[in-house]
Design brief:
The protein is α/β, with parallel strands linked by helices and 233 residues long. 29% of the residues lie in helices and 23% in strands. The chain has 8 helices and 10 strands. Strands 2-1-3-10-4 form a 5-stranded mixed beta sheet. Helix 5 links the parallel strand 6 and strand 7. The longest helix has 17 residues.
Length: 233
């Protein structure tokens, strides 16, 4: 049967800005294919904005990382996404299978400069007691990629482009980081607690299945032996 009568006509959802281009349309396609023809209202923002929108009732769900404080206790953990290095193909480090933080800390750094995100990325280097020299700040994942391709330095990102998302240009390589760093988790936050309506439960199931189908090698750049720990059971 068609679920449309039990699902809101408009799905109001918020996501961490980079997720919008990296995987959300493809994942939402699967949701619509499962529940029937709903309109999608996707608000893309930083970690702080998403929580404000959720608290104000502008969105029913927020998809974000568990970095920085999360105000609601109603969160569903989906998958862990370790940090990885994004390098220009001409960088000698690009010849290696994996790199150490101490190697990339010496490079000019391109920072995805969003609230909580920037703090998280720079804090990774605190185990070395040496932060890299930030030479390029941007709020856009796409601009990080083109700045690396244009020779401004290297960067650290977490999610890789999935499925139909724009693939990296030839000038860019991604490499796992050898250091043991705590990976952030993609979570779905809501305000419903244990009384989640049907459309929220369906969304969570379809979202989880989407990442299971893509698999760790499809959404992350990490050491093969670490891949089995990335899906949250």
């Amino acid at each position: 049967g068609d679920l449309t009568d039990r699902v809101p006509r408009v799905l109001r959802i918020g996501c961490f800005e980079p997720f919008g281009a990296l995987f959300m349309p493809e994942m939402l396609r699967k949701y619509v294919d499962n529940v029937g023809d709903v309109e999608i209202d996707l608000l893309e923002g930083n970690q702080v904005q998403l929580q404000t929108w959720l608290a104000e009732g502008l969105i029913d769900l927020a998809i974000l990382y568990d970095i920085g404080p999360i105000q609601t206790t109603s969160i569903t953990r989906i998958c862990r996404v370790p940090a990885h290095a994004v390098l220009h193909m001409d960088d000698p480090l690009a010849q290696k299978d994996a790199v150490w933080l101490s190697e990339i800390a010496l490079r000019p750094f391109i920072l995805l400069d969003m609230p909580q995100t920037a703090t998280y990325l720079l804090t990774l280097f605190d185990i070395l007691a040496k932060r890299p020299d930030v030479r390029f700040h941007t709020r856009s994942y796409e601009t990080v990629r083109s700045a690396v391709a244009s020779g401004f330095g290297m960067s650290i990102l977490n999610m890789r482009p999935i499925g139909r998302a724009t693939a990296d240009g030839q000038a860019i390589v991604r490499r796992p980081i050898l250091d043991e760093l705590p990976p952030p988790t993609v979570v779905i936050a809501d305000l419903y607690g244990s009384a989640k309506p049907l459309f929220v439960r369906l969304f969570i199931d379809i979202f989880r299945r989407f990442f299971e189908d893509v698999g760790p090698s499809g959404f992350s750049v990490t050491m093969p032996e670490r891949q089995s720990q990335l899906m949250v059971k």
